[in-house]
């Protein structure tokens, strides 16, 4: 894994993949995409970084422990369900605010939760497997 | 066409079972991975494969057109893939740890909990 | 009566503290409970002739038709008085018997005895069959504890386990019979079942129910072929033996059969079976009694014989059999309990249980000798005792019945043996014998009060039977016969055939006593006979079961993961295959459907090749690539068939999977040597091919069925209008099935955490094998 070119491009590749993953996450509600795929792509981006420059660099870039990311993800998904519990007496019944042609709903928060859990979960696996190699 | 799908899935599933029946941990792991791919296809096929139009509502329409693919099995398969991956990763971690502690990937050498051959103590050890 | 039962139960619990406080006189204090109950039921019984039967009900599980109904009629009263009366004497005796033991032991024993008494009271008082069954099982359980009371003795543990297995197994049969009756009639009330007997007999379930109930009764009352557990059960301390053998617990089977006699008498096989089983039990017990030497063993074998007599009497038709039955229950309870008390005192006194080793105790244990003599006269059926009257009735009912002379002959023989046993038990330890046994524990009031009272009662009832007839026998008789019969008991019947039979018995018994040693010696030489008549069958079955279990375990649990997996896979295949064949429906296979898509076909072909390659190659890296081909192939299939979301996910997963597998393969040896024998491989190929076939047939059958699209149509119609999303798949995930998705996300989190924790530990490597 000490190819110079790979190492040089890894940072760019990583940023690109992260951007794509966020885009896929956002458009998931109306076009193919979503939290699962987004999270996987983001995890793949971090994995690229880890392969090219080492696990420590990938960790430093993430800033948080992967476990923390998982926790935030589950929290976000749960929070996405709470408004429904309050307004509709039904957990995870999503609420919508319609601003002209744009629809913003609690589904986005839920999807972000899924994204974060998948990202954190998969990343923790990858980092563990590549530690000490 | 459905029969071709069924046939291919059956072949993949049979080969997976053959790998799972091995005593080599990594081969079992590969078998499980392949079997989960086959099963994802089973779910997909049970919703019928008749079109290549994605299950996305076209702009300007308010409901899914009749020629679009069945969305239900897709949603199920999507989660199944991620779960299957988590399972495989866990299995791989177990395999890795087994190799680290035993120095072997042969299940015949994993006998700390259960002696190979018979669960009973040898006749001379009996009370 | 409910209150009485509750008092009895609470009193038994309390006895533990009371007895250890008042040690060594705890027996006298504890005896207040059964004595009080005896008086209570005696008072209740006095009012019975006017009211017929007293019933009390407490709803217990109304939804299942189970109510705690207690019913006291003449027959129940007989048992209740025997249980509490003998219970009182047993409690006093036990207090004295355990006077030299640690007080905790005495307290524990008396608690068990009183609980046992409560359970027996419950059994005979219950009118609801389910409630009765609960108490019935409680007696089995408590007798297990009593027989195994000396738990440090291996023999006691074995006997206790044996009795529990036999009576517990019989209990299950009984429960089955009760449920069948409940299914047929829709009620569990014994009195209602008795009223609707014809309805029950008309049902096809009547005979199975009868057989099951008979099994329950035969195991409890130690009838052939379950006779072996009772003699073993005298491992229990003597007071428990007296209670178990004489009065009560083993007679519960007799009680049950007598109760069901009115119901099942329409089935001819019922009576015939009882007569045959009872007679055979009598014979076997007589032979075994003659071949043993232990004081208690001899008595135990004679108990089995007496139970055989009782069962036979229930089966007999004709007049007097019911009367003989009731009288024999009473007489037997009186003399057998007394003899067990005497045996207990004697063995306790000299510390030796073999009849041939003890003798000359008349001066050392005078009261016990007297009591044993009185009880023995009743057991031998000599006038002027209740035993004599009972025997006359026994012969009379046999002569009146249609069962023929064989039964009479058996009865004569067995009664002769009883008489001989009585003689031996009453004379040998006290008057005969060359040895003069040393007495370690002298007799005390508590030890000889019980046998003296019981022996005396045998004489009292024999001389003045009227009191007993009016108070107990007549009411019980009416219940069992179903209508009132005028009874008259008297000691002297005149010169009848029965008297001649009695004389024969006495003469025969005299011979047996004279030649006791020789007969005993001849029989004890014949080991094969003892094995066949004893618990040989039980032991063989038990050992066989254990061997079978061990063989199964050896075969199935041999520590080889390959064997486990192939067993499971083969079993699944066989079950599915059998299911498909047995259902008889041939799966419809639609040959032309869907659209033909060349790219998909090519991808499928590649997947098949990849799968094959993965199984063939010895290189793990190549196998991984082959598996990757299958994975990417499936992603392509999704992409080509309208599932871009799934395809995208599958692609990402495949990439990450490769990353993880590479990390694994970098550490383990790359080349995988074959781990299977060629023979195993062939079998595995067969199983895998079968699996593929099953998958194919199942899928082909599935796609040939019409698709139920209601859920999909609902999603398709409402996804945008209600959930504001155009990508239906994603809307299903985050909205319609959001709570599922939440759960799945948490599964991912758990898997990640497990790996995180698992791989953090760096294990110390064991020496490579």
TrEMBL record, chain A:
Keywords from the named record: Cell membrane, Membrane, Transmembrane, Transmembrane helix
Domain Na+/H+ antiporter MnhB subunit-related protein: 5-123
Pfam families xrefs: MnhB (PF04039)
Compartmental location: Cell membrane
InterPro entries on file: CPA3_antiporter_subunitB (IPR050622), MnhB (IPR007182)
Transmembrane feature ranges: 12-29, 35-55, 67-87, 107-130
Entry GO CC: plasma membrane
Domain of life: Bacteria
Entry membrane topology: Multi-pass membrane protein
Family under the similarity heading: Belongs to the CPA3 antiporters (TC 2.A.63) subunit B family.
Name of the protein described by the UniProt record: Na(+)/H(+) antiporter subunit B
Natural source organism: Pseudomonas songnenensis
Lineage, broadest ranks: Bacteria, Pseudomonadati, Pseudomonadota, Gammaproteobacteria, Pseudomonadales
TrEMBL record, chain B:
InterPro entries assigned: CPA3_antiporter_subunitC, NUOK/Mnh_C1-like
Organism: Pseudomonas songnenensis
Keyword Protein biosynthesis: no
Subcellular location: Cell membrane
UniProt topology in membrane: Multi-pass membrane protein
Protein name: Cation:proton antiporter
Entry keyword Membrane: yes
Gene3D superfamilies the UniProt entry points to: 1.10.287.3510
Family designation: Belongs to the CPA3 antiporters (TC 2.A.63) subunit C family.
Transmembrane portions of the chain: 6-21, 28-51, 71-96
Top-rank taxon: Bacteria
Keyword line: Cell membrane, Membrane, Transmembrane, Transmembrane helix
From TrEMBL, chain C:
Every NADH-Ubiquinone oxidoreductase (complex I) chain 5 N-terminal domain range: 63-103
Name of this protein: DUF4040 domain-containing protein
Transmembrane intervals: 25-43, 76-99, 106-124, 130-149, 161-188, 200-219, 270-291, 298-316, 322-344, 365-383, 403-425, 445-464, 495-516, 564-584, 596-614, 621-640, 646-666, 686-705, 741-759
Ranges of residues in domain NADH:quinone oxidoreductase/Mrp antiporter transmembrane: 126-411
Organism per entry: Pseudomonas songnenensis
Gene3D superfamilies in alphabetical order: NADH-ubiquinone/plastoquinone oxidoreductase chain 6, subunit NuoJ
The keyword Transmembrane appears for this protein: yes
Residue span(s) of domain MrpA C-terminal/MbhE: 679-761
Record membrane topology: Multi-pass membrane protein
């Amino acid at each position: 894994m000490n190819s110079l070119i790979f190492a040089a491009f890894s940072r760019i590749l990583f940023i690109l993949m992260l951007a794509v993953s966020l885009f896929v996450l956002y458009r998931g509600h109306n076009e193919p995409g979503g939290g699962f795929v987004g999270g996987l792509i983001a995890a793949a981006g971090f994995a690229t970084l880890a392969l090219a420059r080492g696990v420590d660099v990938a960790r430093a870039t993430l800033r948080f422990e992967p476990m923390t990311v998982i926790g935030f993800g589950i929290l976000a998904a749960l929070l996405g369900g709470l408004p429904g519990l309050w307004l509709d007496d039904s957990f995870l019944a999503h609420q919508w605010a319609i601003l002209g042609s744009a629809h913003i709903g609690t589904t986005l928060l839920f999807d972000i939760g899924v994204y974060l859990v998948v990202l954190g979960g998969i990343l923790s696996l990858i980092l563990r497997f590549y530690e000490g190699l | 066409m459905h029969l071709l799908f069924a046939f291919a899935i059956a072949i993949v599933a049979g080969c997976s079972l053959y790998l799972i029946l091995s005593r080599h941990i990594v081969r079992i792991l590969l078998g499980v991975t392949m079997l989960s791919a086959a099963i994802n296809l089973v779910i997909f096929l049970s919703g019928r494969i008749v079109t290549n139009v994605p299950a996305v509502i076209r702009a300007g329409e308010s409901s899914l057109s009749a020629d679009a693919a069945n969305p239900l099995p897709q949603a199920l398969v999507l989660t199944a893939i991620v779960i299957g991956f988590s399972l495989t990763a866990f299995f791989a971690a177990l395999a890795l740890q087994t190799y680290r502690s035993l120095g072997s990937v042969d299940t015949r050498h994993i006998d700390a909990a259960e002696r190979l051959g018979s669960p009973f103590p040898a006749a001379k050890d009996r009370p | 009566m409910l209150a009485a039962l509750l008092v009895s139960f609470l009193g038994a619990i309390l006895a533990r503290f009371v007895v250890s406080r008042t040690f060594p006189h705890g027996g006298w204090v504890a005896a207040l409970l059964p004595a009080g109950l005896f008086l209570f039921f005696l008072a209740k019984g006095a009012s019975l002739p006017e009211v017929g039967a007293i019933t009390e009900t407490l709803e217990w599980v109304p939804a299942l038709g189970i109510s705690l109904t207690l019913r006291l009629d003449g027959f129940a009263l007989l048992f209740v008085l025997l249980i509490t009366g003998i219970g009182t004497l047993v409690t006093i005796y036990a207090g004295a018997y355990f006077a030299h033991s640690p007080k905790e032991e005495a307290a524990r024993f008396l608690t068990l005895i009183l609980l046992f008494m409560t359970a027996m009271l419950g059994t005979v008082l219950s009118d609801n069959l389910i409630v009765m069954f609960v108490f019935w099982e409680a007696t089995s359980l408590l007798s297990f504890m009593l027989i195994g009371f000396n738990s440090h003795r291996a023999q006691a543990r074995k006997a206790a386990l044996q009795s529990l297995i036999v009576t517990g197994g019989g209990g299950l049969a009984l429960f089955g019979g009760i449920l069948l009756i409940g299914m047929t009639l829709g009620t569990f009330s014994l009195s209602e079942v008795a009223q609707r007997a014809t309805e029950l007999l008309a049902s096809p379930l009547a005979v199975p129910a009868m057989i099951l109930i008979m099994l329950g009764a035969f195991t409890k009352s130690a009838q052939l072929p379950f006779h072996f557990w009772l003699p073993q059960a005298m491992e229990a301390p003597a007071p428990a033996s007296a209670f178990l053998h004489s009065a009560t617990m083993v007679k519960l089977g007799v009680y049950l059969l007598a109760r069901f006699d009115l119901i099942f008498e329409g089935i001819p096989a019922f009576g015939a079976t009882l007569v045959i089983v009872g007679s055979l039990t009598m014979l076997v017990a007589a032979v075994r009694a003659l071949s043993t030497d232990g004081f208690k063993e001899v008595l135990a074998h004679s108990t089995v014989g007496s139970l055989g007599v009782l069962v036979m009497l229930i089966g007999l038709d004709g007049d007097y059999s019911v009367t003989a039955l009731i009288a024999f229950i009473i007489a037997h309870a009186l003399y057998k309990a007394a003899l067990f008390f005497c045996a207990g005192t004697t063995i306790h006194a000299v510390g030796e249980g073999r009849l041939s080793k003890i003798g000359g105790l008349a001066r050392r244990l005078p009261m016990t000798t007297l009591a044993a003599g009185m009880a023995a006269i009743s057991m031998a059926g000599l006038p002027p005792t209740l035993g004599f009257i009972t025997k006359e009735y026994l012969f009379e009912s046999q002569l009146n019945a249609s069962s023929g002379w064989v039964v009479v002959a058996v009865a004569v023989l067995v009664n002769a043996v009883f008489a001989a046993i009585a003689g031996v038990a009453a004379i040998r330890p006290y008057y005969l014998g060359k040895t003069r046994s040393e007495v370690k524990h002298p007799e005390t009031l508590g030890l000889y009060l019980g046998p003296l009272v019981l022996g005396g009662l045998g004489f009292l009832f024999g001389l003045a039977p009227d009191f007993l007839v009016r108070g107990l026998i007549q009411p019980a008789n009416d219940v069992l016969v179903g209508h009132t019969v005028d009874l008259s008991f008297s000691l002297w019947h005149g010169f009848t055939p029965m008297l001649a039979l009695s004389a024969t018995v006495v003469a025969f018994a005299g011979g047996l006593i004279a030649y006791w040693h020789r007969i005993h010696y001849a029989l004890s030489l014949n080991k094969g006979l003892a094995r066949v008549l004893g618990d040989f069958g039980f032991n063989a079955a038990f050992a066989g079961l254990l061997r079978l279990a061990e063989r199964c375990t050896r075969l199935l649990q041999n520590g080889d993961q390959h064997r486990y997996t192939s067993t499971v896979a083969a079993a699944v295949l066989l079950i599915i295959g059998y299911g498909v064949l047995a259902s008889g429906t041939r799966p419809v296979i639609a040959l032309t459907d869907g659209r033909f898509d060349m790219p998909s076909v090519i991808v499928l072909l590649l997947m098949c090749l990849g799968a094959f390659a993965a199984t063939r190659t010895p290189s793990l890296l190549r196998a991984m690539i082959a598996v990757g081909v299958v994975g990417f192939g499936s992603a392509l299939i999704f992409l080509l068939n309208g599932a871009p979301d799934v395809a995208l996910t599958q692609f990402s997963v495949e990439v990450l999977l490769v990353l993880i597998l590479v990390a694994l393969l970098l550490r383990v040896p790359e080349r995988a040597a074959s781990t299977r024998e060629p023979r195993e491989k062939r079998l595995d190929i067969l199983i895998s091919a079968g699996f593929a076939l099953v998958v194919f047939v199942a899928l082909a059958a599935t796609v040939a069925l019409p698709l139920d699209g209601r859920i999909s149509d609902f999603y398709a119609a409402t996804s945008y209008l209600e959930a504001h999303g155009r990508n239906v798949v994603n809307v299903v995930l985050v909205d319609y099935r959001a709570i599922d998705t939440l759960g799945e996300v948490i599964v991912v989190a758990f898997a990640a955490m497990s790996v995180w924790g698992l791989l953090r530990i760096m294990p110390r490597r064991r020496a490579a094998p």
